[in-house]
PPP family 3-phenylpropionic acid transporter
Amino acid sequence: MLPYPWLALNLSAIYLVLGIFSPFWGVWLESVGLKSEQIGLLLGIGFAMRLCGSLTIMRQVRRAELLIPAARILVWGGLLSFVGFYFSSQFWVVFLFTLLVNFIYPTLLPLTDAIASRMVLQVNLDYGNVRLWGSAAFIVGTTLIGIVIEHLGQSWILHCIVLGLLVAGFCIHMPMKPAPRTIGQESESHGYGMLLRNRAFLNFLAIEALIFGSHSAYNSFSAIYWHSQGFSASTISALWTTGVVFEIIMFAASRRLLAGWSPERLFFWATIGAVIRWITIGTSLNLWFLFPAQALHSFTYTLAHLGAMQFLSQRLPREAIISGQTLYSAIGQSLSLALFTVLSGMMYRHMQQHVFLVMAVIALPVFYLIWHGKRMTISRPAQ
């Protein structure tokens, strides 16, 4: 199978599960009797384990040829980990399998991004055009699970995740031709340590950490909050779906619409969108305001992610891209979401919707970091 259809198929399978897991896992945890502080703790620890998983697992993928075999192991490992939640709904059992699930399954996201990035180099793949298939599958997952919950109950959140990973397990074993391969005389000289000592790369990580970290209250508590205010599961699904629809539109138009945009410009508009979006969600339950705010997901997520992919592919030496991708996922996304999700869980009980206003404040320092990082460059190691 050629790279484009292979990636479209596998991104669809992986993000179908994510469309169930991301918006409704907190709802499933609440359905088995956990309190908001426990939910916030579990979700926050989950993001921390994503950090550990990305750093540990991606560290072993030293060559491009190992990317697809590693993805196959992670799909089946993720499936077995989710099955563990059937054993008991006691907190410590849920805690244990939360650690395992988040160590394994989310690493598929940076891993498939790394495969896509490699194929951009090998066959000039249009990243935005293939990534939109994952976003489309996310919509399908979010929409279907909303319908399933209303008719069959919240226990089906876990059942659908397990079924989705079974599908992903079959898709991931399709062969890709040409497969990812090491190009030229790539070395491993750009490890984690060298990138983490570079001020420009650290500034980039801080930008992404604040933008993605500001999504923590939305990711973990928007469905719970809207449900508490009388929104039906289908309405919540529609709100999440709206965000991803506009994400798809932005991915599809990115090569044409955003041609010539620098990473800094993409980060700037992502931050503008974040401030407006979180203020709106934190101050209104009017669907006429919430749906347009959700459309800003095309800014808060898509522009931030496209800026990251552009930064990694254009500013880093080729041999540093996999390490950079790993650190972006582990620190710029997982660690920041872990910290801010725990914080959100502690604040949500007392602040309710006002926790989203805190997320708007969290995004504000990005404007300074963009200005501060404009003159910084990634240096190559001495030969």
Q: What stands out?
A: The domain at 3-177+192-373 is CATH 1.20.1250.20 (Growth Hormone; Chain: A;).
